[in-house]
Amino acid sequence: MELLIDLNSDCPIYEQIYEFIKNEIKIGHILPDTKLPSTRSLAQSLKVSRTTIVNAYEQLLSEGYLKSRAGSGYIVNRLDILNIERKEYKREYKKEKSVNDENINVDFSPTKIDSKNFPYASWRSIARKVFSSEKEDVFSTGDNQGEYGLRTQIADYLHTARRVVCSPSNIIIGAGSEYLIMLLGLLLGSRNIAVENPGYIKAKEIFKSMAWNVIGIDMDIEGMDINMLDSKNADICYLMPANQYPTGVIMPINRRRELIAWCYRGEDRYIIEDDYDSEFRFVGKPIPAMQGIDSDKIIYIGTFSKSIAPAIRVAYMVLPEKLMEEYERRLDFLSCSVPRSDQDILEIFIKEGYFERHLNRMRTNYRIKRDVLIESIKNNLPRGEVFENNSGLHILLKVEGMSEEEILLCGNNAGVKLYPISGFFTGENTIKSTVLVGFASLGSEEIKSGIADLSAKINDFFNKTIKE
């Protein structure tokens, strides 16, 4: 073998020898069943130590390029099985979404929060306390269901604030509600699930990805249409009764009882209650969770995404006792997907009253912004009609005489970003001339200027229409 060694190379000599022989075997210059020179003779030929040659040969042996027999030295292995036709696969990259956000001055996003008023100093102080603790278990995997201390705090909060019937033992903590929904897929198997129409698109996509049969059920003024639900072959129901997204409908007690009765009319039926955005009610007390009426038939899911921050990927699920028993039997091997340190920080944040104080401040903050938004629309958009139920972080804006597309276009021309309701429908959009307008991430002056600019473009639209 004409093997050249570069003594000035950063690559170790044994690795140069290994690479050379491997490539010679792969391209067929060294044929199968060829006996390689002995380690001693090759070492003498290359003027290197025998250990260097042994290391190179042993690496080739461990990867299967060589075989070794006692007394026979090293022999090239037959690699015919690797001579297969390979086709290069090129992934087709998604095109970047063409969103001209550089022209947007005011973004009325319904999903963003007011991050400027997050209690950063308190959070940092708690984090320092957690990481300065002498307990080393902050870096351990921890409890599979989530840390017991955090589950205890969540159970206390849910009982007091949401009237949820639960204990730490039937709470599961996960990194976001999407993860918990996928966990339900493992627990329940493939199902026929009824979802609100219009409704939360991401949940629908997750159910579809789990091969669940997704059935859209139309909404009326009280929530999911019970008559339409009865006519469908569903055995699971996914609802947002406290503040339906995106319509903001609050489900009254009679409709809630009707849906629970639906559960008992079929075998193994359950309701998944997503308590999204339930903390922010601006008149009266927050609407109690539906789960408090019947804890045997309702799977409750909540998250801290809106009440604290979306980046804090902590959600929780309360399972009925029967399903919790099934979970412990079949899925208890799954580790909690939220880091132990994050759970410890959040536990202290709730336990020492920071969470309640933050929530109260944000309710006041968001109420002021909501009032400014509604007042601005009344003063600037006489054709505009606001739909809201004194809760949530967005309103619905209807402009009679305009289509959804025309409202959005006027917004874009004004440097104002609004959000279509049509994307939340399964099938045809039945709520015409309506868009979503969020307010949480904006200041009062931004809200006023955004609505004023939007109003000017909408007035131009109607003036142009009249002239034509």
Q: Mind sketching the topology for me?
A:
Elements: H1 13-26, H2 39-46, H3 50-62, E1 66-69, E2 73-76, E3 106-107, H4 120-131, H5 148-162, E4 171-174, H6 177-188, E5 192-197, H7 201-209, E6 213-220, E7 223-224, H8 226-230, E8 236-239, H9 253-264, E9 270-274, E10 298-303, E11 315-318, H10 321-330, H11 340-351, H12 354-380, E12 384-387, E13 394-399, H13 404-413, E14 416-417, E15 419-420, E16 434-438, H14 444-467
Parallel strand pairs: 3-14, 5-6, 5-8, 8-9, 9-10
Antiparallel strand pairs: 1-2, 4-11, 6-7, 10-11, 12-13, 13-16, 15-16
Helix pairs in contact: 1-3, 2-3, 4-11, 5-11, 6-7, 12-14, 13-14
Summarize the structure.
The protein is of the alpha/beta class.
Structure description:
The protein has 468 residues and is an alpha/beta fold. The chain is 39% helix and 15% strand. An eight-stranded mixed β-sheet has the order 4-11-10-9-8-5-6-7. Strands 12-13-16-15 form a four-stranded antiparallel β-sheet, with helices on one face. Strand 8 (236-239), helix 9 (253-264) and strand 9 (270-274) form a beta-alpha-beta unit. The chain is elongated, with a radius of gyration of 31 Å. 35% of the residues are buried. The model has no long low-confidence stretch (mean pLDDT 90).
